[in-house]
Every structure is written in C-alpha cells, then in structure tokens.
UniProtKB/TrEMBL annotation:
The gene is hisE. GO terms for molecular function: ATP binding; phosphoribosyl-ATP diphosphatase activity. This is Phosphoribosyl-ATP pyrophosphatase. The keyword Cytoplasm applies. The lineage of its organism: Bacteria, Pseudomonadati, Pseudomonadota, Betaproteobacteria, Burkholderiales. One of its GO terms (cellular component) is cytoplasm. CDD domains: NTP-PPase_HisIE_like. Pathway: Amino-acid biosynthesis; L-histidine biosynthesis; L-histidine from 5-phospho-alpha-D-ribose 1-diphosphate: step 2/9. It catalyses: 1-(5-phospho-beta-D-ribosyl)-ATP + H2O = 1-(5-phospho-beta-D-ribosyl)-5'-AMP + diphosphate + H(+). It comes from Parvibium lacunae. HAMAP family: HisE (MF_01020). GO terms for biological process: L-histidine biosynthetic process.
Length: 112
C-alpha cells in the first residue's frame, strides 16, 4: 500500500526537469531548475518558520510549517537519489536505542 510520502516522492521524481517537468507548470520543477542551493535555502526557511510557529505556540501553524519542511526534505532526498523509505528504515534501525545510550557509545568510541 503506498503512503502519502511514497506518492509525493513519486510526483517529485516525475516533476524533475530531466524527466520532463516544466518549470512553468510545476513548483518542484521550478525549484529544481534553480539548482541544489535553492532547495537548501527553502529547507532553512521552512525550518525557521517552523521554529517561529512553535515560539508563537500555534499548533496548527506548526503542523502547516512541518508539512512545508517535510515536503522540501522530500525534494532534497530526491536530489540525492534517496527515498522517504530510506529515512523510515533509519528510524526503524534506531528504534529502542536511547539517544543517551547512543551518545555515550559514540563518545566512548571517539575516546578509543
Ligand atoms: N506538498 C506540496 C507542497 N507543499 C508546499 N508547497 C509549495 O512550497 C512553497 C512553500 O514556500 P513558501 O511557504 O515560502 O511560499 P512562497 O513564498 O510561495 O515560496 P517561494 O516563492 O519562496 O518559493 C509554496 O509555493 C507551496 O505551494 C508544495 N508544492 C507541492 N506539493 C506537492 O508536490 C506536488 C507537485 O507539485 P508541482 O510541482 O507544483 O506540480 C503537488 O501535487 C503536491 O502533492
């Protein structure tokens, strides 16, 4: 069963200018035409807007801005030939491993 992440990722892939995406018809194609830094700039903007919504204690706006942030992260993943499932797999790999334990292990390994 395809999820919304799968479907949006597939749409993003299809909108790539190299695959015929038209910058005059498609936001994704227009952004990708501007080059990799344009996507990074949007991610920075959307992350900042997410922080501002949280500081304003506006839960609905937080959801809206996180959706913008995730959407632009999906474009970034496509640029790097990665799929949302790769991120889900990484989260699954980490499942049950405390961040504090992971950090302690990392610090221990760096000291070796
Ligand atoms: N999920 C989204 C989505 N979320 C946000 N956005 C766009 O991302 C932009 C967010 O930037 P801002 O909030 O800063 O708004 P802005 O000032 O208009 O943006 P800029 O002028 O700075 O680029 C807006 O233009 C939103 O409309 C999205 N555009 C497209 N999608 C998905 O991508 C698909 C393909 O879209 P097209 O490429 O446009 O066909 C769509 O069918 C949707 O499923």
């Amino acid at each position: 069963m395809s999820t919304i992440l799968d479907r949006v990722a597939a749409t993003i892939a299809a909108r790539h200018p190299a695959h015929g995406g038209d910058p005059n018809q498609s936001y994704v194609a227009k952004l990708l035409t501007k080059g990799p830094d344009a996507v990074l700039k949007k991610i920075g903007e959307e992350a900042t807007e997410t922080v501002m919504a949280a500081k304003d204690a506006n839960p609905d706006q937080v959801v809206y801005e996180v959706a913008d942030l995730w959407f632009h992260c999906l474009i970034l993943l496509a640029q790097h030939d990665r799929h949302p499932q790769d991120v889900l797999n990484e989260l699954a790999r980490r499942e049950g491993l405390s961040g504090l334990v992971e950090k302690a292990q990392r610090t221990e390994n760096q000291a070796d």
